[in-house]
Amino acid sequence: MPGYEWRRVRSRDFYALGLGALLSMFTFLGDGYLPPRLAPCPGTSWQDVASFFIVISIGMTFIEGLNWAAWWITCDLRERSNSEGDTETLRGDLVIPGGWIGLAFGLILLIVPYVLHDPSQCEQFYSGKVSVRYFVGALMLSYGALLVGQLFRDVNSRVSSQKLQ
Hints:
Layout: H1 6-28, H2 30-33, H3 46-81, H4 99-116, H5 132-164
């Protein structure tokens, strides 16, 4: 079985977490730094920003776990069906498409919670009662950030490979 491309995952997650930090600041600190109309949740505390970033990080981990599970199942099925030695390299991005399709889908997932205000990322996070709206909003933003992070990762790898040539 070919190995999973963890280096690809680390670089995608690095870009996605950076975008998640920007989203957290944009979502909660918009009244002092941006026009109030652009900030969906103005006037919150730093605890809200930190908890939202942690929830986005957990959502990214969940989506990366789904991506790994889909890759593992596909590799296992392909290995069982290809017993004659045909080895194809799987990229490991079955749940996370790249290119312009991934960017378009990612931007849609990032914009929808802001436009609709539902599912809402503006709700306070309490570990005792996690609402479905908060969970779905965080997953949408996490998935969108991973899709955009994948594009940043692809562009960065192309630029760095062109510099080497």
